Here is the input.
Amino acid sequence: MSRARVLVKLLYLLASCSPTETTAATPANVPADSQPATPAEVPATPPPEAPTVTAPAETPDPLRFLRSPPAGFVDLRTALPGACFDIRYHTSNNFVGAPLPGYGAPGAWMLEAPADALQRVNVQLQEQGLTLLIYDSYRPFRGTSAMVAWAKRTDQVFLLDNGYIARRSGHNHGHTVDLTIAKVETCEPIDMGTLWDVLDERSHTRNATGIPLENRLLLKRLMSEQGFKPYSKEWWHFQFAMEGSKPRDVPYGCQEPDEGAWTHPNGWEVSSWVPPSEVPNGPCLSSSSAPSP
Here is the structure.
């Protein structure tokens, strides 16, 4: 064999032993950019955002605009622990259908002696799982005047003549109270046969039967034992027997006109007059937050 042929054969053998690079084939008819991405190319899923929680709006406390009681008076919310309060003349939920002047805040004051007597009644009730529910206590004289004006403009003067609305009330003195008995846990009033402030003979204390009559007589007995005089035409109305008091016109609301400064609106006894839906009020100033003489 010639040297040249040997050299060619050696080169052929060397070429057949070299490593061959392979390339992964792309399947036919599949675009390259549609191939599955490698794990490194999969975009990360962002964590879910926390839900936005909006805190419920707080209901303003209507007592924040309450004056301090006048000298000789006490706040029943302090004097009657565990008692319930539903001061209707601060709202439109009353027979007038509007808040009464003097009730810019839902306060409940009484003179000290009747307040102490009420506490004794409340202690007896709470031993039975019950409590007092106060609807009205001291009433500024302007509030009584508004009731009288309502009776005149609605042509219901007979309510004045028949003793359901007073032209001058013991409430103005701070020794008279409108109340009922309620359950301690819920402040739900027990059955008295009628709602409070039903101004007709259905509310006469004795004009009931069964459970409502029993409940009326229970309230009457407990209140009478502590020095309160019941009113036969209104099962809820009690006046403490005392002398030397005087009518007052100190309003409950901090920024209502002070005693002696209030005047009634013009024309409020006319049928077309519409009472305001709320009594203007605002934060207490130093003069209104201090106890009135």
